């Protein structure tokens, strides 16, 4: 029986609800920017395209450089007032914003489905992690601010599209809770309407948020180098992160630059294949489009036959397709591991990389088919990619040394512990890694040699929530580390000559490694 779109979940339904719930931020013909304390019908709207089925959705109202400069100056005015608001009142306003977001939880999640292609379960989780995470900070903020105060200027946030709520909005609300005005550029590739609705709900409660859209090159002089800023927070790839770091090099400004790394899963003297098979299936959540995804497995050669026997059933069981397609109108939304990639250009680029890697000697251990996906009749599926696994990717391939940000695994075989560690450290630093080994002492010894901020022993690691610290080693991170109390310290001023934990141009201070 052909699948149908779940009634009430169309883009028109979602956008119509936005216009009804926040008419100040959503007009029938466009989304607005927010700066200077009001919603501005400025900028040049550019049509957006949903990766779900290729249809047109609301696109970003792109500001020019001069407008961005004015927006940052207005945020600085907001900051000078907000920093003097008592903590109790700041906490009350942020809590009211969280209550409003909770009331609009499902609409925020539906926007994420359409704008960045998240399956329903993961879209809800993104919203919930933001709300629950910030509530924890509201409860803990008193002790975190002892001896600390707001920065001299607002915090500027530039983040990738994959976690608009649990990373970007979460950070902005904690920054505001700590006494700073917060600025964000909407990600170019998706998340505009979700962020706009969340921002509108927070602004109504008096939280000083600025939300603007535009190209990175056009807005960077204001959002990175603007003299009014107190801190720049960036989440994204190494190329863009390197450009931000270069722009900041002569300013001595507080910064948090989270960049990608090739997160690896090493397997050595291991035998619990049933558990590993379940873990491998889970690594395909959201098509590995996250900074803590595991796209590389480094496997002891003598265990390869057992690894394959565990791996193939896991990857064959992955479910993907249209996140809102159901068999019957009354059915619940489907339980999928992933939907589309962020756009069809990404899907094509990754397909070309796969073909090139195989042509140059990589072995296609598994290559799924889009015929196995769940799609509506006749829908555009150009942004979708079925799971792929390549054994021994050639060294000349981008898949050998870079994070694919798609459902593609590469597998490297090794014979010695030294080879294992060299393969796991191929990208000069990563955010997370895992060692699967039956002997805990051996696993822990190997883990200490892996250049990742968090290393799991027989289990995956993630960014974490609440008190968990987060950072990266090597080229995967620049500036202050975050997570738990460190997030507040990163966006507040403390004792004179304080040296925050992190990777800075003139020093590196690393807290106790998170190996568990």
UniProtKB/TrEMBL annotation:
Signal sequence bounds: none
Swiss-Prot/TrEMBL keywords: Oxidoreductase
Example of a GO MF term: oxidoreductase activity, acting on the aldehyde or oxo group of donors, NAD or NADP as acceptor
Residues covered by the Aldehyde dehydrogenase domain: 44-485
Pfam families: Aldedh (PF00171)
Superkingdom, taxonomy of origin: Bacteria
tRNA processing listed as a keyword: no
Ligase in keyword set: no
PANTHER family: ALDEHYDE DEHYDROGENASE-RELATED
Protein name: Aldehyde dehydrogenase
Organism: Acrocarpospora corrugata
